[in-house]
Amino acid sequence: MNFFAKLYYRLHKVWKAIRLNLVIAGHGIVVMVADNDAGGITTYAATGAKFGYRLIWFLLLLIPVAYYVQEMTVRLGAVSKRGHAEAIFDGFGAFWGWFSLLDLMIVDWLTLVTEFVGMSAALAIFGVPPWLTVAAVIVLMGGIVLNGRYWTWKRSPCCSAH
Question: Is residue 35 a contact partner of residue 111, using CB atoms and an 8 Å limit?
Answer without folding.
Answer: no
